[in-house]
Amino acid sequence: MKALLLNMPLLADVSKIATDDYVGFTFFVGCMAMMAASAFFFLSMNSFDSKWRTSILVSGLITFIAAVHYWYMRDYWASNGESPTFFRYVDWVLTVPLMCVEFYLILKVAGAQRSMMWRLILLSVIMLVTGYWGEAVARDQAWFWGLVSGIAYFVIVYDIWFGKAKALAVQAGGATLQAHKTLCWFVLVGWAIYPIGYMAGTPGWYEGIFGGLAMDVIYNIGDAVNKIGFGLVVYGAAVAARES
Ligand SMILES: *C/C=C(C)/C=C/C=C(C)/C=C/C1=C(C)CCCC1(C)C
Prior knowledge:
mainly alpha
């Protein structure tokens, strides 16, 4: 029994975070924020009808998956003082496609087809895999992989702002159109935070411009804005639809 107790990795496992470690601080706060947001989405989803419930469930899944990754990233940063690039991209490759699913779900009532969702998912995976390649594997050509990633990002922006998704949102009108518009702004402005983080954290011609910034702080701010904000927009649309 005594041996068992001694082997239990309870408090001894909590890593130290220095008071001036602002990167570690944003990992910690990010983790708590994602957990709180998940509790909020999961607990509120049952007060909506089935049309919106799945969308809110997906909002909760996005922040929950992020909360688990932030738990690991916070620890990884505290123990190694290095960017948790691997966990970061595993998180994104799970949550960003779920955001594409979110676009599809809110447009489903207007007749959105799965092919639209798969196209967005494929583009987002291309964007993330090439970004990972530039950040973790071929750092000397980071600018090139960042460019390829940026093109995929641009196509996503174009698709949702001007493509079929837009036409469906206009057709649906009301709370759906409003939510679609706001989510489009999130992708255009909120997601643009990430390439800035990338340029801050990889070598290239842009080092002189962004090199002084902390990549992880930028990514953590981006995640908080986009994952929680995105979910709240969907929540707001569900509330608006319920009250109309
Ligand atoms: C919850 C996580 C989200 C919404 C992550 C989004 C990530 C991006 C939009 C990343 C984009 C990138 C580029 C457009 C170019 C440079 C490489 C990336 C992967 C940072």
